Amino acid sequence: MIMKTDLDLQAQKMLRTAGLYCTRARVAIIKILIRADRPLTQNQVASRLRTKHLDKVTIYRTLQSLLQAGLVHRAFMQQRAWHFELARNCSETQCHPHFTCTGCGRTHCLTKMSLPMAKSPHKGFIIHRQKIQFEGLCPACA
Ligand SMILES: [Zn+2]
Ligand SMILES: [Zn+2]
Ligand SMILES: [Zn+2]
User: Fold this and answer.
1) Buried b vs exposed e over 43-63: b needs ≥16 C-beta within 10 Å?
2) Which ligand sits nearest to residue 141's alpha carbon?
3) Residue 46 — φ and ψ, nearest 5°?
4) Which of 62, 82, 86, 131 has the most CB atoms less than 10 A away?
5) Interval 45-57: pLDDT, tens
6) Please, which residues have CB less than 5 A from ligand 1, an ion?
7) What is the pLDDT of residues 95-118, one digit of tens each?
């Protein structure tokens, strides 16, 4: 298990590299996303916060600032909620693919998988980012 101080340093380093101030909310949310290792909704982030000082608006704004800085990505939307994750396992032009099990509903990050970039489908369309999502059965449900 990673020591708490290591996680703090890791979060602070990420923020500094992205040119963001190390606010308590940003550090806390990045630490949650590092620990989670899979995309979380805003509510899931909120329920994992140890300090209850952060209200919904603060969490929302913090996630937005991390998104804008490119530290966090919106991985996918499920049940009308965006799932957020750190962008560290994504490249400039594509996010790592995600696999959602239709049995248990759990989504897995396929961080080792990278697919060739699709070409623009029609003239005038410019692809900035490729995000692939798979559906199927996980080992536990197969
Ligand atoms: Zn991504
Ligand atoms: Zn499953
Ligand atoms: Zn992921």
Assistant:
1) eebbeeeeeeebeeeebeebb
2) 2
3) -60, -40
4) 62
5) 999 997 767 899 9
6) 73, 90, 95
7) 999 999 999 999 999 999 989 999
